[in-house]
TrEMBL record:
<dbReference type="InterPro" id="IPR004603">
    <property type="entry name" value="DNA_mismatch_endonuc_vsr"/>
</dbReference>
<keyword id="KW-0227">DNA damage</keyword>
<comment type="similarity">
    <text>Belongs to the vsr family.</text>
</comment>
<protein>
    <recommendedName>
        <fullName>Very short patch repair endonuclease</fullName>
        <ecNumber>3.1.-.-</ecNumber>
    </recommendedName>
</protein>
<keyword id="KW-0540">Nuclease</keyword>
<dbReference type="InterPro" id="IPR011335">
    <property type="entry name" value="Restrct_endonuc-II-like"/>
</dbReference>
<dbReference type="Pfam" id="PF03852">
    <property type="entry name" value="Vsr"/>
</dbReference>
<keyword id="KW-0255">Endonuclease</keyword>
<dbReference type="GO" id="GO:0004519">
    <property type="term" value="F:endonuclease activity"/>
</dbReference>
<keyword id="KW-0378">Hydrolase</keyword>
<comment type="function">
    <text>May nick specific sequences that contain T:G mispairs resulting from m5C-deamination.</text>
</comment>
<keyword id="KW-0234">DNA repair</keyword>
């Protein structure tokens, strides 16, 4: 199946997709900051440059887009119909990298949270996700994953 736009237009569209300071990330940061949590953004001092690093709690938080990071079972983790081999390889590499980074962080003693984009799509969901994160940060678990059912 051919793309519905030309290569230049597609390239321009893809270059507009941000990796930092996305809407879900900003919503989570705002809510956590309001609750008194302080953090560093995209710290290069830990593997994977996590979206948030909370040194006081020895924890990092990744805000993952459901499409790019392949949130299993999520309705937003669709696959493009054009060039399926390319996309499958790209998604597989992203998932493998995420897994390796998570493993490295856990082995280094960091606590790791993954918050999926679908859990931050509406303000009441943001509140639920932050409640769960707050419990986890103040508790002792080494990892947590928060999706739309948070």
């Amino acid at each position: 199946m051919a793309d519905i736009v030309d290569q230049q237009t597609r390239s321009l569209m893809m270059s507009g997709i941000r990796g930092k300071n996305t809407k879900p990330e900003l919503a989570l940061r705002c809510a956590l900051h309001f609750r008194g949590f302080r953090f560093r953004l995209h710290s290069g001092r830990v593997p994977g440059r996590p979206d948030l690093m909370l040194a006081k709690h020895h924890a990092v938080i990744f805000v993952h887009g459901c499409f790019w990071h392949r949130h299993e079972g999520c309705r937003y983790a669709t696959s493009p119909s054009t060039r399926p081999e390319f996309w499958q390889a790209k998604f597989a590499a992203t998932v493998a990298r995420d897994s390796a980074v998570r493993r490295d962080l856990l082995e280094s003693g960091w606590r790791v949270a993954t918050v999926w984009e679908c859990a931050l799509r509406r303000s009441e969901k943001v509140s639920d996700a932050v409640n769960t994160l707050e419990e986890w940060l103040l508790g002792s678990g080494d990892r947590i994953e928060i999706g739309a059912d948070a």
